[in-house]
Amino acid sequence: MSHSRVSNWPSNLQYSTRPLYHASVSKEVKQFLQSSPSGTRSADNAPCRVVIRKITENTHPAHGQCGLFAGKKIPPNALILDYIGEIHCDDRPESDYDLSLHRFPDGTSVGVDASRFGNEARFTNDYRGVQSKPNAVFTDYRTNTGELRMCIRSRQEIKKGEEILVSYGKSWWSNRTDEEEK
Ligand SMILES: C[S@@+](CC[C@H](N)C(=O)[O-])C[C@H]1O[C@@H](n2cnc3c(N)ncnc32)[C@H](O)[C@@H]1O
């Protein structure tokens, strides 16, 4: 799908429904990520309809930025959509769009960074200051072709028009607060 068909997609960012593998991902790591070692694969998961919308409410802590909203009622435990970005093994301390996908026992860490490239999932905000708890969660799964991906799954029913909110985790916020205090 081209970004021109996704409402409110920023024109300076590349839109994609598939991950891109950065040069820092070795052949061995790529092989692990692209084929299920256990042979277990998920059934087909159709993404849910979502909408990127600018946040205009003054009380929202991400006021002026964008958020992700349900375009249709989402049932509990549904795969809302994959978190698409650049799969990488280098450090991205400056990125606010980088999620951890996998860590190997030798310490090699694989991330998905949607700062320059991705899909609607990169607009998912944290629940803090918006709702009392998240209504969705980041979780990994294997696609029906065996590729390891991060996705957003609903924890409960999400009504049409409601904001999809996850928890980034305490360490995500404490890392940022520590940086600001330095
Ligand atoms: C992955 S982005 C989320 C999408 C972002 N709102 C946008 O328009 O690009 C993460 C950034 O969103 C903002 N954000 C998300 N949840 C927030 C919250 N609960 N309170 C304050 N800022 C939040 C922060 O600026 C954070 O660095």
TrEMBL record:
All residue ranges annotated as the SET domain in the record: 48-169
Supply the alphabetized keyword list: Chromatin regulator
Quote the Pfam families the UniProt record gives.
SET
GO cellular component, as recorded: Rpd3L-Expanded complex; Set3 complex
A Gene Ontology biological process noted in the UniProt record is: regulation of DNA-templated transcription
Q: What is this protein called?
A: SET domain protein
Q: Which species is this UniProt entry from?
A: Ephemerocybe angulata
